[in-house]
Amino acid sequence: MTDLSAVLEATGLLAGAGGLGYAKVRAPRVYWSLVGLPVTWGRFTLTYRSTMDVCGLTVQPSRLRAFLTRNVARREVLPVAPKVRRVRGTSTGLRVTLRLPAGLEPADVIAASERLRHAWGVHSVTVAETKPGFVELRMTGYDVLRRVRMPRATRIDGLAVPVALREDGTAYVRDYQKVPHALTLGANQSGKSVYQRSLIKSLAQVPVALVGIDCKRGVEQSAYAPRLSALAITPDASASLLDVLVEQMESRFDLLSLHGVSDVWELPEGLRPVPIVVLVDEVAELFLISSKKDEERRERIVTALIRLGQMARAVGIYLEVCGQRFGSELGRGATMLRAQLTGRVVHRVNDKQTAEMGLADVAPDAVMPAGLIPAERPGTAVAADSSGGWVKIRTPRTSRDEAAAVCREYAHLVPELPALDPYRPHVPADLPARGPSLVKPRPVTE
Ligand SMILES: Nc1ncnc2c1ncn2[C@@H]1O[C@H](COP(=O)(O)OP(=O)(O)OP(=O)(O)O)[C@@H](O)[C@H]1O
């Protein structure tokens, strides 16, 4: 009898262990919630002080504090570690808010993040400064970019739209009010189109005008026609569409000057023109020319793009440019335009120069990780902006049909913009009426 129960027990244990091993590989989220999270939380709680000590994240107490500890509390005087303000478990990891003592700064914690990762046995530790004197340690229990699932609480907030998952398990958000123009680069099959689809899927639900420029005869963007206010699929059409956008920009500046403000978001709600996002697919098609007679058109296109890049932010016109490479080999004006596109998303690239084109001027530290993105992880990219910070992201796998379905569903949000009507792509007649050409305000948050 005892033998039988021992065998059953052992079999049960083995099955349990096997199940856990299986879950760890096949369902890391479930494994993390059942096993990883309690173990890591326990290890963090038990070893916090000593870990901070060995990782060099403690400071000597002030003289007064040392005096009081020694003479009033009659305790040994120990170095001071950051105070734990909050510990929170998530489905991907553990978040810890720390209050830094005088003498420690966020850069010290960032520098120690690799040591903290080893000490607590987690997949990654990233550090974000949440407010002066406070940092959040974002630990992930497993590689969240292996199979992307956006956090459940992700939502669109005005012109801040979620596009991908960051390696710390939070959503990567494209915020047009913070970073108005962006450039997405990557080699063939690196995941640029999927990134654009994910972006369009989110943008389609926002009251903005979407303008497509896709000189590969619209093979990608024509699927989004129901939600597009304009689509150009040839360089000639792109040149005249960009001229119209520059005219729009100028008339919006007239409106700003009439009301004595410098930004559309300062206009009264009822007068604010709808934001326009211009999505340029494969930008090289606009720059490269095959004969001398195309030169004038190229000049028009490049001038219009540079003017939009330099000034259009203030009037709510934003550029989202995508290409395989974007450097001086595209000719005059390319590097000048690139300098205006301060948001950068670089997917896998074929050579170091492409990573440098995309990242060296805004976040030099991001060049190396961009060059290390493996081919078997399409959709993975390094995102950076002119703040110098960067993060590894991966887009959720999004099919063209999925993005097209969202565009059809939100076709009623295509705003009234008569100047763009000649460029409106053909859409089925049974689609609902258009949305308003003015938008509700969103307080600008810094
Ligand atoms: N996030 C992702 N997860 C899984 N697979 C992805 C992801 N992103 C892209 N892929 C896959 O990688 C392949 C290439 O993606 P995509 O078409 O977006 O690349 P691309 O850079 O636009 O290529 P090209 O320049 O050749 O058009 C596709 O088969 C796509 O399904």
UniProtKB/TrEMBL annotation:
Which residues belong to any copy of the FtsK domain? 168-356
Keywords, A to Z, come to: ATP-binding, Nucleotide-binding
Under the heading SUPFAM superfamilies, the entry gives:
P-loop containing nucleoside triphosphate hydrolases
Matches recorded under InterPro entries: FtsK/SpoIIIE/SftA, FtsK_dom, P-loop_NTPase
- The organism's place on the tree of life at top rank: Bacteria
Q: Give me the residues that bind ATP, please.
A: 186-193
Enumerate the Pfam families for this protein.
FtsK_SpoIIIE
- Identify this protein by name: FtsK/SpoIIIE domain-containing protein
Annotated source species: Streptomyces solicathayae
